[in-house]
Amino acid sequence: MSKPANVVLLIDDEPKIRRFLRAGFELNGFAVLEAENATEALKIATFSSPDLIILDLSLPDLHGADVLERIRAWSNVPIIILSVVAGEDEKVRLLQAGADDYVVKPFGMAELLARSEAALRRYFKSATENPVVAAGPLSVDLVTRSVSLHSSPVRLTRKEYRLLHVLAMHVGLVVTHDQLLKEIWSGNQRDNIQYLRILVRKLRQKIEADPNQPRLLVTESGVGYRLQNRLDAEPLTARVS
Amino acid sequence: MFTMTSARPTKLASRPSGAAALDEISPWRVLWQKAVPPLLSISSIGLVTAALLALNQTLATSLVPIAYLVPVMFAATRWGVWPAMAASITGMVAADFFFFAPLYSFRVDDPQEAVDLLLFLIVSLVSSNLASRLRKETETLRQRESEMHALYDFSRSLASCFAVADLIAAIRQHFERAFGHAATFFVTTTNGHFEPPEPQFAPPSVKASAAAMNSGEGPLSRTIIDERRRELWLLRAISSETSIHGVIAVNIGLGSELTIERRSRRIEAILDETALTLQRLDIGKAMESARLRLQAQMLRDAFHGTLSHELCTPLAAIQGSASVLETIPAIRADVRIHALVEAISEETAHLDGYISNLLSATRVTAGGLNPRLEWADPRDIVNGAIKRRARRLSAHRIETHFADDLPLLHVDSGLVEEACGQILENAAKYSPSGSTITADVRYEPHRVIVVVSDQGVGITADERQQLGHRSFRSARHQSSIPGTGLGFWIASTFIQANGGTIAVHSRGPGQGTTVSISLPASETSTSELTAFANE
Known about the structure:
The structure holds two protein chains of two kinds. Chain A has helices at 15-27, 38-48, 64-72, 88-96, 109-128, 158-169, 177-185, 193-207, and strands spanning 7-11, 31-35, 52-56, 79-83, 101-104, 132-135, 138-141, 146-149, 152-153, 174-176, 217-220, 224-227. By secondary structure, chain A is an alpha/beta fold. Chain A folds into two domains: 7-127, Rossmann fold (3-Layer(aba) Sandwich); 130-227, Arc Repressor Mutant, subunit A. Chain A has a five-stranded parallel sheet with strand order 2-1-3-4-5, with helices on both faces. In chain A, strands 6-7-8-9 form a four-stranded antiparallel sheet, covered by helices on one side. In chain A, strands 10-12-11 form a three-stranded antiparallel sheet. In chain A, helix 3 links the parallel strand 3 and strand 4 (79-83). The longest helix of chain A has 20 residues, at 109-128. By secondary structure, chain B is of the alpha+beta class. Among the domains of chain B are: 11-148, no CATH class; 373-533, 2-Layer Sandwich (Heat Shock Protein 90), CATH 3.30.565. In chain B, 57% of the residues lie in helices and 14% in strands. In chain B, the strands form three sheets. A five-stranded antiparallel sheet of chain B has the order 1-2-5-4-3, with helices on both faces. Chain B has a five-stranded mixed sheet with strand order 7-9-10-12-11, covered by helices on one side. In chain B, helix 7 (257-327) runs antiparallel to helix 9.
């Protein structure tokens, strides 16, 4: 492998979990660092500056949410949360506290890798400066604001585009209801999730092959929405520079 | 609804002296009490005189003033000021008659002796007055002490009260001791059963007032004067913040203003204690129920914690490891090995399903179901349920039909999604592989109906009756289809928690089953919302 590998820091107190995460990430071209508690994790995060952090919520010395907060105080590194039983409220809280995404145990490696890739892509986007976001047959040019599906242009209303724009900026990652409401209605209708639901329905009618079974704009129950960056659940390799 | 009880007359004998004033007093007894002490004090003077006469003349004369002071002081401390004064005067007269010249005459010749006698009289009167006042004060103190003691006993018996019934018994006992039969206690009962029967001595006006106070009408404190029977009744309700537990009525007679005041003060003291105890009982009750709730919560949390850690962590490790293996090209290339890896994933997912069912069941049983209602699209819920159970539904054809312009639902989408998933899973479990399961989402006024139909084994009328019960499994399938009997129960509990209903239909065994889930929907039409959304 000629290019330098992305470095991922795995923070989990369970050796069993770390073992397969290490194997999964190494097989997909990552260099792996491990920490089994918060103290060690914070030390490694500071001195080795990893490109990605996978953080388990239950740690022996500090709650994962606190670790997230401490790292976010000085670093913008992508952080994906692992949790066993996270309620919707907790997921939303963690996302608002700066987590890029979350994965609930038990999970498949493919799912975690897809989330990791999306988070890394977003983290490094400013460097690549490609304004066109592709999600399956859909492409969104964030600069010219043009949307096309299977290479033919799609006409969206102002609000529909705004919604797609925010999701495209975080392609592959979950965006919370709160964040969407804030970005789209800029404070006016912030607590009215009904409008968001209807807007999503309208947007799906324009971009989905079957609006009744959406595959691009998917719902994260009780948390928010996600624009899928790939349609199949095929295993993938991280190809982020 | 109240009962009336009073002290039994037999208890009167054991009543402390402090409460004597309330009894009816016979005239003979009054005469006895008034006449005997002066007579006794006068005879004690006689006794001293006799003793002095036995001595020789000069010694006796020198001892006279001191010796006569003894019975005076005795009478003063023992019987009060009047007997003491009688003793003083008798003493002076006796001294003059027996010991001062001329002897055996009431005349006094020597002015010196006249002054002596006068001095004796003054000293004995003053000291008897002082001594009797001391006695009175001691008596008051003693009485107050006994009152305090009784009150202390009362509050000690209150401290051991753990229910309102104990408290009422303690109050009743205390009143019996302190006021005798003059106190009446009216107790509210829930069933209207009176025991012991109503005593007749309380005047009708008191009974009527007590009844009114019991039912919460009017003030909680009243004074009733019964002119005809010359009685003054004091009524006080015993109430906590939540309810009135009873009314105490005490006949305090029509004594002097001071007596009335003193007795009302005692009653107030008792009521204050009672109110505090009631408050404590209320707080105690609240604390007890809070403690039980907390225990249930802790048990549930511990169960969840243990389950999630001890079961889910190894499961996550197995699932994760299998998924890593699945990404390896060499394994994907070999069909046999790939099938093994897939089997691991499938079985783990199966196990995970069981565990989450158990977790859901404990959540329901421990009362931890707090639906978090928000607006959700029924399509998202049904699609989510299908997606989450994709593996377990993979052997069946799943068809979904959504009505156009479905309104939004105001539900906890997580719970409803889980309920729909359980129903879909059941449909798959009890219908042959390759058959079709349909999920039809319709709209009725104010409701959205999710209808899940299968082409499976159906249900009998008897099975339908028992379907809602936890852990019910039909005898027809117990050996052939694995399960816990929790699925439908969890689904119906979750749907009910969201204000919905669930109904099951089947044309009979082998004819398939249809489950209809009805949920409350938004009243606002989607076109209205669209207009706002695009504003």
